[in-house]
Design goal:
- Helices cover 40% and strands 17% of the residues.
- It is of the alpha/beta class.
- It has four domains: 6-205, P-loop containing nucleotide triphosphate hydrolases (Rossmann fold, 3-Layer(aba) Sandwich), CATH 3.40.50; 216-371, Rossmann fold (3-Layer(aba) Sandwich), CATH 3.40.50.300; 383-436, no CATH class; 458-548, RRM (RNA recognition motif) domain (Alpha-Beta Plaits), CATH 3.30.70.330.
- The strands form four sheets. A seven-stranded parallel sheet has the order 3-4-2-5-6-1-7, sandwiched between helices. A seven-stranded parallel sheet has the order 10-11-9-12-13-8-14, with helices on both faces.
- A hairpin with a 5-residue loop joins strand 16 (460-462) and strand 17 (468-476).
- Helix 3 (28-38) runs parallel beside helix 4 (53-63).
- The structure holds adenosine monophosphate.
- The site of adenosine monophosphate has 13 residues, from helix 4.
Length: 551
Amino acid sequence: MSDDFLSLGLSAPLLKAVEQLGYEQPSPIQVQTIPILLNGKNLLGTAQTGTGKTAAFALPLLNNLKQQHSPQILVLTPTRELAIQVAEAFQSYAKYIRGFQVLPVYGGTNISAQLRSLKRGVQVVVGTPGRILDHLRRHSLDLSHVTGLVLDEADEMLRMGFIDDVEAILSQTPDHCQRALFSATMPPAIKRVASTYLGEAVHISIKSKTKTVERIQQHYATVKAHQKMDVLTRVLEVESFDGVLIFVRTRSATVNIAEQLEARGFLSAAINGDLSQALRERTINRLKAGQIDVLVATDVAARGLDVDRISHVINFDIPYDNESYVHRIGRTGRAGRDGKAILFITPKENRLLRSIEKSTGQAILPLTIPTNKDVKDQRIQQFTQQLLKTMNTSRLDQFRDMILTFASQNELDMADIAAALAYEHQKERPLFPKLDNIVAPRLPNSSKKMGNKKPGPSRTLCDEDGHVIPLVTYRLEVGIDDGVAPANIVGAIANEADISSKYIGQIKLYERYSTVDLPEGMPDSVFHHLKKAWVCSKPMNISLLNRHKGS
Ligand code: AMP
């Protein structure tokens, strides 16, 4: 456990959980936020996903938790996915707090399980505004003992039209309860909520100094978390590199990734805060000497690392802030050489990318993810080059005689024998690999219009006879993050509701949900049928957008 975490003043059970999760040092927002919240002050934080903000509020609030069964901490999130994610984070940080219970509550699911859990007693509730309000109306959720309240991704809640619900909930929390609001941006409506409900809050934002990183070519690839390893392998296959430094967030990830890379034939090692100084130095020396080519490191372990042959820095996990990005990529482009930095971002982390670009004043260009064909071409080129080298430098007389005898005894064609040898040789690392197709996820806020429908706010479409059909907008709880494309939505609606695709209007895809315009006056029976429909293995949970609040 690093001194940094110890010095924050968190209790032993929390430190143990953090240690077990492999966190080596608190992120900048955690360093700033934890002491303030431990002190019982209100907080207004400008922070986006990926900065470690969940632990920044969850750890201190858990630290102040008393053993009681009515909810003490309430976290409001814009979406069910975030509610689940935050609830899971609470659960993992509270692993060593006895009797701890957290409940995510969100709409689109049967309410009775939530009612049962609330009755049994939970200390932390994480939920979307609509469903929380629903519970308040049913008196199934008691906020009178709430001592800590968090609004997470407040600007997102505003954007999704939940701000009235949020205020209705805030007005029902005890006056003395501690409050924290996190938002990536601070539009006026959020500032107003903050000034009404947060009083004398301490403001936190992660400021970054700008630095120049001119000698370094910077690229990013938008990938889903589970695709990162695959993309990393492809990049390493096709890039011509000397030494590579890969940054990840946790100790366990350093080991895990180094092992996977070793298994794929890259000479790799991990360094993290667990390593003794001597072992760390020995590993770095192996990189310097070319005994290994790839080093997978946490920020802590890479402190002060200075190796000229690092041609590539790969940010497998995005750094917490701009400064640490600049710091990380500065490990390449040393000693007057050029360097390349590649950053993996998940679709949700897009904002951090833009903020890095803004602070360095340099564009980070999209990386073309190597395709199956690129990898194949590269492997074949390496293989044939190796063959030429062997033919030029090795003594092959015995082998040639053996092959000639074999060919004449069996009346075989030389090309067939060579092909069989090549086949045997490439079994471990196929020359014609069959890699999964990687489709870059679309970034948030991309939208796609369908067919010949009239776009824009008028929300109508014309049928073939020129009749104008008014449309209303529905919301579906599936989005880009679920791998949904407009065609999937059209398909699901057309099949389930028997609505011809020509009557399906504009579709907009967002990260975690989407909207679709459909003809006004949908019969109840059709609506109920659609409500149960699935798209891309997820229930679409259709609802009328205007009536839809947090559920
Ligand atoms: P968040 O910004 O809260 O969505 O967190 C992003 C990711 O960073 C999550 O996967 C966390 O588990 C991870 N994380 C948060 N704090 C730390 C830390 N101090 N060290 C390593 N990973 C962390």
